[in-house]
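Loading example: each entry is read as two labelled lines plus one structure line.
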Amino acid sequence: MQRRQTSTAWLFLAPFLITVAVFFFYAFARAAYYSVTDFNLFNTPRVIGLKPYADVLGDPSFRRALGNSLVFAVVTTTLQTVGALLMAVALNRRLRGLPFFRAAWYMPSITSSVVITLIFLWLFQRRGVANYLITQAQASAPLTLTFLLTLIGAQVVQVLLERRRALPAGWFDPALGVTSALLAVLVTAALAWTGVISAREVPPFDYQYFADKWITLGGVRVLSIPLLVVVIQNTFTTIPTLMLFFLAGLQNIPAALYEAAEIDGATPWQQLTRVTVPMLRPVTFYVITVGLIGTMQMFDQVAVIGSAAPGETLITLAYYVYANTFKAGAAPVNMASAAAILLAALILAMVAAQRRFFPSEAP
Amino acid sequence: MKKCLLLACALLATAHAQTTVKINGYGGTDPAVVGDLINRFVKPALAKDKITVVYEPLQGDYNKSLTTLLAAGTAGDVFYLPAETLDGFVATGKVMPLNGLVNTSPFIKSLNTAFTRNGRLYGVAKDFNTLTLVYNKDLFDEAGVKYPDNTDTWATLQTKLTTLKQKLGPDYAGICLQPNWDRFGAFAFATGWTQFDSKGKTNLADPRFAEAFNFYTGLARNKVGIQPSEVSEGWTGGCLKTGKVAVGIEGNWVVNFLRDNAPNLKFGTALMPKNTKTAKRGNFLYTVGWAINSGTKNRAAALKVLNILTSPQVQQYVLEQGLAIPSRTALTNNAYFKKTDPGAVNSRLVFDGADDGNVRAFTFGPQGTDWSKPINEALAAVLSGQKSAADALKKAQADMNAFQSR
């Protein structure tokens, strides 16, 4: 009986095991072997030692790809983890129409990244929506400023009046806020109507997002603007998936802990930092690990943007591996393999460091 | 029953005798063009030989797709071989040398050279393109400056462009400069500079290279020369389309583009300017050849197909249809070239450019397209004002050395 159960288990596991054996272990072993040979897709590989590794490390493109990948991984993982946590906390409350918001927020995650990249390329063109909105914001600055100043002024006056009548009014009281906003709209409209203020004439905002532009730190190129666009896009599309993990984690935190905290007089912020975040530690560990692996292997956005941005600004390790394998005719596949092995080692090291220094257990 | 069996056997035998030659080439409009050529010329000629010809276009990145097919042993018997990626494909050992198998004497010599490595010919030019100066007549008329012509040197062209810019003001530019080897290289060749020395190394510190580099990037000073991105375009043809840029350096492909995208633009064409010192022009030959797969099982049939596709009748048809500039020398006296419409004039000058001055094939050498990266980066850095020409050239040489020592 035991033997039969075991063989059934093997039978069910077989498809998965065969796939892993062929597409992971065999492929990995081949890549490791090619990385010490002179293989170029067409010749019979001959072992030449560690020269491909030396070539890869001496290649300025590889060093740029390494820098880009690391910066991208750290920035994107941080942004998406924090964003996903905040989003999960917000969507974990009992709100009207919650299922709608959960579904709506999940949409970017199920849309193809190629499609989203094309949309972002369109948004951030020189004559794209991003530049158009900035131009509009600059043009309508007098109106916006009038609205904001009136809003703040009205709110201050209202709150002070309420307090004089000994009523407990907060600075951000929503009911008073609506009244102030209405008043601000009326004042702005009246001033615009009488011609006292009007939209300015400004030249179109003309920023090139997909050009060789960099954010530098002490003269060192850290993050390119095109890569920053990809960071924004990636954060936008990954937050929903990671948010689901946090939501699942949040459901498992006993409500009693929050009740106790509330009785002790903890503010919502204190509840978040002292109860939610520590209790979510195992989920956070998982989310960061998945985030790091995903961002270190980022490829599709770079491939889709392609020559629309200068190569050096976007090249990542995964793209470097691809570009060195698929060329015209004979290709330095040995270098691509060496880079792939280095990428794998780097990811392993990052995950190991995370395990070592950031505990994955809830306190 | 017996009859049926005999009939089946006969059919099988016929099917067996039928040879299929598969051709790999570009996607886009090529399937229609090559399909037409096959129906008009190849099929009638091969009707008796029981050879079927099929065209299998490779969509997307042709070079990458062909590499994959060659590595897997499933590429066509005949395929397009772009001269710029010739070395990479020759290194695979999958391209058959054609010496002694085809007669190359009717073809333009520089085109045969483009497909020759170590005395072996790997392809027969299908058609080709060279670079010319394409200019916007209205802008020159408005500025009262003489059009660029075939006697222009770098110095006279620069004077014309600078005057035009001064007359027309900040909204206009003299010339569109792509920060790429694929346009700049023609200027480097004009000085007599060569891409590779006898050891296969590239010397960017050569004064002749620096002379061309300084001239090209120097045009960007005072905004006489601008990059396509400065007018929100991706290439020089796009610059011309805007009507704000007077000159573009392009090949014959720009004619159909302008016809479709800027039908009211009056353009003229002149040969590339001569280097002031050497009095020679520089130019690129952009060409795609017909090649045969060394692993083909239908060698004789493939050769027959190749010979038909490069025959005078096919080339005449290609030229008359305005599809490309064919590669046979005999076409010099073709009636089409005597026409005076802008398209025909452009074709004539593109054809003439193939053997005027220092003309070299557009190629990157055995290490592939990455060869041009250091040059492209240097051009981009100087044209956008981020680096001085001297600094950029220094870095480019260091990067080139690292690349070539791999």
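The first strand of chain A starts at residue 214 and ends at 217.
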